[in-house]
Predict the structure of tRNA1(Val) (adenine(37)-N6)-methyltransferase.
Amino acid sequence: MSHLADNKLTLRRDGFTFKQFFVAHDRCAMKVGTDGILLGAWAPVSSTSRILDIGSGSGLLALMLAQRSEPHVRVDAVELDSAASQQAKENMAASPWADRVTVYAEDIVDFAAMRSTDYSLIVSNPPYFPPGIACGSAEREQARYTTSLTHEALLHCAHQLLMPEGLFCVVLPVQVAEHFIPLAQQHNWYVRQQLCVSEQEGRSAHRVLLALSRQEKVCVHASLAIRDAAKRYSSDFQQLTKDFYLFM
């Protein structure tokens, strides 16, 4: 039985209810969405000793990875926006993993410069809009404009903080990934895993999940359709997310 079921919590409108935890996101520019859920369910956690979530927002990825990882694994989450980082702290405190998840309210560039901790897994649902696209608010612009964290800076920070054998996982629109992958390769990253995601069976991919490594090995390619031809959630998507979605 899930943590939420044990406490008989009802569904709330200020966030997203999962099987074992609740994510409040009403004070966050970016809400819980399919991109983050896919990444949190997909990122490899086997043999992980310490995890870092860059640009954590509400803390969704940190919480999903805390649920999936072994009880000894520490999870750190870094978020620049003060309102979002505070809400993330509250979400962590209310979760079953409050004792092993820590939120840092700071810029990842400063965080990387001041710490020597090596992480075996780093995840990020990073900014990808170029400047000039209207996002509706300054906070949302910060969360989604690459001016707040360029992909080059993100790759550099991850390189500083990742263990030699570790993985750095991101989710990106297909068109953005086409530029991100060559940039990563220029900075001595190698694509180890690549999952192309489509909205429905038979349609072109619209998102790409990448697992990058500092070590060159054969890349494993895969694909996933969120919905089948009948527009129902596909069996692959259900299998990937069944530990999180309430009604899977």
